Structures are given as C-alpha cells and as structure tokens.
Amino acid sequence: MEKGLKWSCVAVVVAFLAMVDVSVSVPFIMLHGIIAGCSDNTNANFTLLLRNLSGSPGFCVEIGNGVFTSMFMPLAHQAEIACEKVKQMKELSKGYNIVARSQGNLVARGLIEFCDGGPPVYNYISLAGPHAGISFIPMCNGLKSSPYCKKFDEIIKRGLYSDFAQNNAAPSGYYKIPTDITMYLESSKYLPKLSNEIPNQRNSTYKDRFASLHNLVLVKFQDDKVIVPIESTWFGFYPDGDFKHVLPAQQTKLYTEDWIGLKTLDTAGKVKFVSVPGGHLDMAYQDVVTHVVPYLKNQERTRKHRNI
Ligand SMILES: *[C@@H]1O[C@H](CO)[C@@H](O)[C@H](O)[C@H]1NC(C)=O
Ligand SMILES: *[C@@H]1O[C@H](CO)[C@@H](O)[C@H](O)[C@H]1NC(C)=O
Ligand SMILES: *[C@@H]1O[C@H](CO)[C@@H](O)[C@H](O)[C@H]1NC(C)=O
Question: 143 with 151: CB under 8 angstroms?
Fold first, then answer.
C-alpha cells in the first residue's frame, strides 16, 4: 500500500473511533422494590422502556433471587451484594446513573454511600423511596400475592426492632416509629447508619459521596398509600416524639444539620422535588418522559462532533 493511502486509512479509522466514542452514553442501573424481581413484567418492561426512551444502556441489577431476597435479606447485605455486582460490571466502570423504585432506593443509597471502590454515581432518580423511613408495614393483607406472605408476617409479629426481624425482614431496616426513637437508634441496623442519624457515629465519607451526585430527583406519588408518611419520599418525616405532624425535609435535622449532604445538594440546585399523580409507583408514561428520561440521556457525551 502507498504510504499516503495508508495514513488516510488510519485517519478514517481514527475519525470513526472518535465518533463511536462520543456516541457512548452513561449507562444506568435499575433497582426494583420489594416482592419484585428484574424478570417480572413490570420491572423488565420498565427497564426496557427507559433504555428505549433514553438511548442509554441500562441494566436491572438483581440481588439474590429477586422476590424472596427483597423480602427477607437485610438491606445492609443487599447493598453489599449490589456493590460487588456494580464493581464487576465493566460497562459501569466510568460511572453510571441509578433509577430505583420504592425499597430499591435504600439499596441505591447504600451503593452511593457505602460502596468502597465503586464507580461514581452521577444522576440518581428515586421513585417512591422511603428515604426517611416508614412508620407502618402492611401485613399479609397488603401482600397477598406473595407465597412468602405468611413467613413475612410471622417474622414481623416478633417485633420489627427485634434482632430476629432486623436479620430476617428487609423492611425492618427502615421502619421508624417517631415515639420510639431511642429504640430505633439502638436497634435498627440500616437506616440510622444510612442517614447518619446516630450522634457519635456520623461518617463524613457517606455525606461526601452522597453530596457528589450531579442530580437527585425525588419523585413522590400523590396517592401513594404504601409509604407512610408519604413525605418520606422527599426526606420529610415526623419530628421525634410526635406521630401527628409531618415535617417537610427542609425542617428536619437531617437537612438543617446536613447529615448526608441533602442540604448541600439542594443549595446547589441539584435536588428536584417532583410530585406526580398516581398511586405507589403508578407513573404515567408522560411523567417518565418528563422526569426520568432527561437524566439518563447524557447530552454532553452524545453531542455530535461536526469538525472531524
Ligand atoms: C410495557 O410498557 C409499555 C409502554 O409503556 C406499555 O404500553 C405496556 O402495557 C407495558 N407492558 C407491561 C406488561 O407492563
Ligand atoms: C423497546 O424497543 C423494542 C425494540 O424497538 C420494542 O420491541 C419494545 O416493545 C420496546 N419496549 C418498551 C417497553 O418500550
Ligand atoms: C467511614 O466510612 C469509610 C467508607 O466506608 C470508611 O473507610 C471509614 O473507616 C469510616 N470511618 C469511620 C470513622 O468509621
């Protein structure tokens, strides 16, 4: 081959590779909620819908076997498994975005705050996340569809702050009774640590990591009957000792004392408090398009380079 021709071939290949590179967008992962799995209709479809609409690669990350694990494995362990999985996924090594549904949000925050050596998380879109805890856990009547319902009921009947429940029922890790805060801080094994609530045990690394998000989108469903109080999806909760009133996030100590960087993010204009019509996770197509998809498209890296 002529030398000149050879070099022009190289130039074409380089230009082509450059185009391929700029069209790669940031991948996302999807974390489902309780009594659910990546392969069920809802979650498989939702992940696919987000891929289709964003044009970004996306993966539903499964922990254990899905349904059973989501109910019975403590969240600390679930978050560890998610961390190991994410570290092994080459596609995510340059960073990724997260979309999480309901309880999956507690795994998501575990990934963001606790995952040593994990890739960075850029945008985090939270759908109906019980971020500040829940004060009510539906018993079997709310979970009839599950074959594991009876087992679940038997566990939580023994007391949600008991070691047994803490080690065997995932929701016990974010169960918070405002009139029993001492017990909660002593016995709950997940949320107090995740929210840096325990006075002498706050870890600034968790805060630094959470505060480094580019965008935090908190979606609340106006008719949500599963997350009680509903404001928990925006980090609002009852004040300590009071079961009657609910404080908006901005009036909680988690926010005013900035335990996990929520205030830092909000002050920087990086938190979107979104309220949509519908029951728990019942999100209209248009609301997905408006409030989720824009954060999964990476405009900067998909920008066309016209000068090559
Ligand atoms: C999957 O998503 C599409 C688009 O939103 C929707 O029309 C369809 O009903 C969904 N299917 C299932 C099984 O949820
Ligand atoms: C996603 O796109 C694929 C391929 O075009 C299509 O078969 C599928 O129905 C779409 N799914 C959803 C949920 O939008
Ligand atoms: C805080 O968390 C980081 C990250 O997991 C850990 O390396 C560090 O030892 C923790 N610090 C304290 C004081 O526990």
Answer: no
Mark the ranges of the chain whose per-residue pLDDT is less than 70.
1-24, 139-146, 299-308
Q: What is the pLDDT of residues 85-134, one digit of tens each?
A: 999 999 999 999 999 999 999 999 999 999 999 999 999 999 999 999 99
- Tell me if 308 sits within 8 A of 19, measured CB to CB: yes
* pLDDT confidence of residue 6: 60
pTM: 0.89
Question: Can you tell me the distance from the alpha carbon of 305 to that of 308, in angstroms, rounded to the nearest whole number?
Answer: 6
C-alpha of residue 133 to centroid of ligand 2, in Å:
35
pLDDT in the model for residue 158: 86
DSSP 125: E
Distance in angstroms between the alpha carbons of the first and the last residue of the chain: 24
Which residues are bridge partners to 247 per DSSP? 237
Minimum-distance ligand 1 atom for the alpha carbon of 42: 14
Q: Is 3.20.20.70 the CATH number for 35-134+202-299?
A: no
- pLDDT score for 25: 87
Q: Which atom of ligand 3 lies nearest, measured to the CA of 204?
A: 1
User: Whose structure tokens read 């991948």?
Assistant: 27
Percent helix, strand and coil across the chain, each rounded to 5? Answer: 50, 10, 40
- Helix, coil or strand: residue 70: helix
- SS3 of residue 14 by DSSP: helix
